[in-house]
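Narrative of activities, Objective 1.

The group set out to show that a structural description can be obtained from nothing but a protein's sequence at a throughput compatible with the screening campaign. Below is one input-output pair from the validation batch, recorded exactly as produced.
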Amino acid sequence: MYEDLIRDSQNEKIDVIERPLKGNLKGLYYSNTIAVSSRLVTDAEKSCILAEEIGHHYRTYGNILNLENVRELKKEKIARNWAYEKLVSLNSLIEVFKLGIRSKHEIAEHLNVTEEFLEAAIKHYKEKYGANCEFDDYYIYFEPNFGILKMF
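Output recorded for this entry:
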């Protein structure tokens, strides 16, 4: 997935570089360039960060380093939501269900995202759709526990 995101970025004329970043920063977007921290270990971590930074490219950008500011927090959330829908789409959740994958650990592994990212994506969908939603011929439940059921 990480290599696919890099390829997609290059097709959109976005440069992606890996380098050490100051402090706890994991990624930055500025002027068609994305920096991903070289301290990130797994492709899943890199994919999650890169997708969020691509979200900044498409949806919101600017100096979003001061997350005490509500306006900047909103910009960060918009970019993250874009990343959730890119890497953990409802369609991809249905596909893993069809493959018989049920545990969150296995779902995250199959989608090449971190478990924390998967949990945040499920929370995003819960905020967007409520406790559940209907997608194609399936019900996707976000609470009380995440699950998917095929409609008959």
